[in-house]
Amino acid sequence: xxxxxxxxxxxxxxxxxxxxxxxxxxxxxxxxxxxxxxxxxxxxxxxxxxxxxxxxxxxxxxxxxxxxxxxxxxxxxxxxxxxxxxxxxxxxxxxxxxxxxxxxxxxxxxxxxxxxxxxxxxxxxxxxxxxxxxxxxxxxxxxxxxxxxxxxxxxxxxxxxxxxxxxxxxxxxxxxxxxxxxxxxxxxxxxxxxxxxxxxxxxxxxxxxxxxxxxxxxxxxxxxxxxxxxxxxxxxxxxx
Amino acid sequence: xxxxxxxxxxxxxxxxxxxxxxxxxxxxxxxxxxxxxxxxxxxxxxxxxxxxxxxxxxxxxxxxxxxxxxxxxxxxxxxxxxxxxxxxxxxxxxxxxxxxxxxxxxxxxxxxxxxxxxxxxxxxxxxxxxxxxxxxxxxxxxxxxxxxxxxxxxxxxxxxxxxxxxxxxxxxxxxxxxxxxxxxxxxxxxxxxxxxxxxxxxxxxxxxxxxxxxxxxxxxxxxxxxxxxxxxxxxxxxxxxxxxxxxxxxxxxxxxxxxxxxxxxxxxxxxxxxxxxxxxxxxxxxxxxxxxxxxxxxxxxxxxxxxxxxxxxxxxxxxxxxxxxxxxxxxxxxxxxxxxxxxxxxxxxxxxxxxxxxxxxxxxxxxxxxxxxxxxxxxxxxxxxxxxxxxxxxxxxxxxxxxxxxxxxxxxxxxxxxxxxxxxxxxxxxxxxxxxxxxxxxxxxxxxxxxxxxx
Lengths: 240, 455
Known about the structure:
The complex is a heterodimer. By secondary structure, chain A is an alpha/beta fold.
């Protein structure tokens, strides 16, 4: 099986280890991974604050890079949701681009979704360790409907103990440009999230979106917490 | 709304609220309590999703034919003996009500909870005409004593804890300090009972208006709503035009959805259906009933892309689950309606020029959409408003320039890679320019971006 990897701008620029972990995982399950050259960003920074023309320009570029029939896999629930739901809406009035958007929307997968639904990676399981809790990011769960897959993967971590996070579904305060536009609220929400994480007694918190994890990580660092913040891809890949 | 609109200073309002630990604690406690009670109240209901679909469809039907339902309501209510007035805006509505009251020599007015009356700032208008206006919903009474506006559409004093209320009552009512909710409630009850019995008129809102019978429907808990609408000889109800429901027969779903969504109750203590004034042989009821139907921009909203917000039935569930609302409370939004539905209504009813910063007050997490009983696409509407903000030129010039650059850079692999290299090399500078609130919360860019190691 082949898959096109969409690294996302955050992983590409700030968290390359998550990209490498994603490649390692996909290859482990027999996937031939391609990284379409020229990929940049899904366009959410512009889309979410109302810059429609700019979002369209970036989305149009994405569609010109991701061609063909292979599934598009990305280690981000938020970017997957952007392609799946907002691309077709962005090009509503442009029949040609709309067809391309719908084609891409039909083959985009968030990583945990792809690992469970397509590769059935949980059946083999992964070596793991320690006490792990999980923050379910908003676009992954609410926009993409991926609720169970990350949990199924976490349950398949042999040797690790999973502890549920109270109020896991409460937003961490990242919100893309929200963190820049209303940092006071964003930080307050991240602190609240950090409180919940610390209260679980977990040594690792994981999730499926680098943006949320970055925001959480900053709050954990500010309080000098030893809790490790790791993308689910990194957590799964490190044992294999 | 008491006081001037402060939506334009949303960010600084919010910043102050974030620093107010007492407010934060009260908000978190209240929002969690209502959130949990809501979930518990819906848990035993088997067909919630179907019920939401039906309620949504009924609201949609109302919006599709709103002028017809309003006309039908006017005819039915008039037939039932009420006098119906139509007000195109807040100024007209306030003046209609003042005149009704003044013409009958009314001096002492008791009020039931009404967000529409807050929207038009009715109390100030009546007080300026020399009338005494007393809010009789306990939460409204508390904030009236404090000189504040509601911070939640269902629970107006949600931002206050019982110690603050105890202090307020002892200062303003001259009673010994107590923070026992039972004692405080008894104090308010004693004061308000006198007001009900001596009132010349009662002013209320309404949750729904049935077009077929001309009935007003009110969901209340404290009994004050029933007192306001039945004890004084004159009852004036003010409601906005979109509160229509085609028929009283449509109510069962709303009776099940509204209290559960709002306060986590299976039903409110009182559900009042008022059809016209007291008739010969009736045991209770006001002798005279006036109904003021407020438009105040709704007809215009109905013709626009964000018209689905008019489906809203004012349960407040969206604010209880909103991460932003839970953190800053209702006053930060700077106008009558807070939270997700509130920032939308604020922008649409008061105009982008007076409100544009509140369209940023959402992380787009979608928790509001999960709980909306009538399936208002709140996130989609917030995105529409953000696009409008940009289109109408209310966005920050620096942001605009930044986004224009982003649109070019992120659509060009060469520029994007260059941007990565520059950001990496000059990160200490970017960090300072970006501010500790933003860039300071991000790690330094990777020395080698993933693209250079990718397969």
